Amino acid sequence: MDPAVSGVPQRFPAPAKLNLFLHVVGRRPDGYHELQTLFRFLKYDDELEITARVDGHIVLTEPLPGVAQEQDLCWRAARLLQMHTGCALGADIRLIKRLPMGGGLGGGSSDAATVLLVLNRIWALDLSREALQSLGLQLGADVPIFVYGQTAFAEGVGDVLQPLALPPAVYVVLIPPVAVSTRAVFSHPDLTRDTPRLTIAPLMEGAWQDDRTHNDLEPLVARLYPEVAAALVWLSQYGAARMTGSGACCFVACDSREEAERIFALRPSGMHGFVAEGLDQHPLFEIV
Fold it and tell me: Percent helix, strand, coil in the chain (nearest 5)?
């Protein structure tokens, strides 16, 4: 029997992601932005303890401070899956949080995706990956990539996905001490919204790491948050530094763990972050 079904707590990873570039190529009539981006997972994660309950209750055993249950993405993901399928089972969910909130690493979206993936298994629902991605999109634009589970070129609102193979890399990631509001950045009048569309061909040639790509949100966020600008300036000594998502985290790619650790050790006092390998697949890819 699956340990989670039998009532024995088991931990499941919810990995971070990077946007290796992020272009805003237009705005839809409904107000959502059309994006092009390249997602890559990192070997650095939140963890969730998830155990099935027979009484139908969804219980957050250690709620996030200041976050109402109905706003918590883990609770919302479980409740959405329950309502969509009519499942009578419930779950205890404990989040072990490592990824910063408002950091652009996809922490909340990754947490929600892990809840969907794990409960689909331990509730024996047998929904397809595509069905789980569709449910995930109701929770947030970044949730589908974590369900999809592979390095991918994304379009639409980030939900139209094509797999893309990348060479190995290790990333130095800095976490500026600010939480950036994704909604505020995307609604800002100074945001660039007309970057020309890319085809996948330049990406197969390596365009994600040269001046054919960038993060359209980065100049605005760096202007609004000096801490982000400082992280980018420092990292740029060692390569093509970029911000991920809507910020605040910034990164630079390295060829080896040794190189990344050396760079990270040189960071100024007060700059926090981590070193992590890029992942080709989500650790729970085979669960569906």
Answer: 35, 25, 40
At 216-263, the pLDDT tens digits run 999 999 999 999 999 999 999 999 999 999 999 999 999 999 999 999
Closest Cα to residue 250, out of 274, 220, 268? 274
* Highest CATH level, class, for 11-163: alpha beta
Taking CA atoms, 164 is separated from 37, 116, 120, 201, 252, in Å, by: 12, 24, 26, 11, 20
The β-bridge relationship of strands 170-174 and 273-279 is antiparallel
Alpha-carbon gap, residue 62 to 231, rounded angstroms = 32
Residues 39-79: pLDDT tens digits?
A: 999 999 999 999 999 999 999 999 988 888 999 999 999 99
The secondary structure of 72-111 as a DSSP string is -HHHHHHHHHHHHHT---EEEEEEE--SPTTSSS-HHHHH
Active site residues: 17, 142
Q: Are 22 and 71 in contact (CB under 8 A)?
A: no
Domain ranges of the chain: 11-163, 170-279
Q: Kindly report the CATH number that applies to the domain delimited by 170-279.
A: 3.30.70.890
pTM of the predicted model as reported, rounded to 2 decimal places: 0.95
What is the distance between the terminal CA atoms of the chain, rounded to a whole angstrom? 17
Tens digit of pLDDT for each residue in 121-180?
999 999 999 999 999 999 999 999 999 999 999 999 888 999 999 999 999 999 999 999
